[in-house]
């Protein structure tokens, strides 16, 4: 006969195993989702409006002090920089970049492109990073003049 204490320990152990498996499964699912997002082919297509709105919010919070509201590199902090912040409204330059290149500069900082003053933003990941990339790219399109 199995004691009540042993049954309780077995049930607790089983619950712990199931809970751990669920947590690991959720973590793996999140990692796979992020990996798919980061390995998606680089594109220059427009993002969904919700994504652009989120990108605009994050850009304003993280980028406008140096790059300015319109992304022209003329933010309030830009006056003290040499070299000046990148002009994201410059379509000729921005069209040479893939979304992946823009994302890497945002995440790892400008030093990877010879612009050491731009700080890294490692907390921007996944959908938020994609939204900032899409919004940054939108600053160099013709319809961004209405912003």
Describe the structure in your own words:
- This protein is an all-alpha fold and 147 residues long.
- It has two domains: 1-39; 46-146, Cytochrome c-like domain (Cytochrome Bc1 Complex, Chain D, domain 2), CATH 1.10.760.
- Helices cover 55% and strands 0% of the residues.
- Helix 5 crosses helix 6 (126-138).
- The longest helix has 36 residues, at 4-39.
- The chain is elongated and about 80 Å long.
Defining key terms:
elongated; 2 domains; 6 helices; Cytochrome Bc1 Complex, Chain D, domain 2
Q: Report helical residue fraction.
A: 55-70%
Please indicate the count of domains.
Answer: 2
| Computed Rg | 22 Å
How many helices? 6
Predict the CATH topology of the largest domain.
Cytochrome Bc1 Complex, Chain D, domain 2
The SSE order reads HHHHHH
Give the topology, please.
Blueprint: H1 4-39, H2 49-62, H3 64-67, H4 91-94, H5 99-108, H6 126-138
Task: Summarize this entry quickly.
The chain is mainly α. The chain has helices spanning 4-39, 49-62, 64-67, 91-94, 99-108, 126-138.
């Amino acid at each position: 006969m199995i004691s009540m204490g042993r049954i309780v320990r077995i049930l607790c152990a089983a619950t712990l195993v199931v809970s751990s498996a669920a947590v690991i499964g959720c973590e793996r699912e999140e990692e796979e989702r992020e990996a798919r997002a980061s390995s998606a082919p680089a594109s220059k297509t427009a993002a969904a409006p919700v994504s652009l709105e989120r990108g605009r919010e994050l850009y304003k919070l993280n980028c406008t002090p140096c790059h300015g509201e319109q992304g022209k590199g003329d933010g309030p902090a830009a006056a003290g920089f040499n070299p000046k912040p990148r002009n994201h409204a410059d379509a000729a330059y921005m069209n040479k970049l893939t979304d992946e290149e823009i994302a890497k500069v945002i995440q790892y900082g400008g030093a990877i492109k010879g612009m050491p003053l731009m700080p890294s933003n490692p907390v921007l990941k996944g959908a938020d990073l994609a939204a900032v990339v899409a919004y940054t790219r939108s600053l160099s399109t013709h319809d961004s003049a209405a912003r």
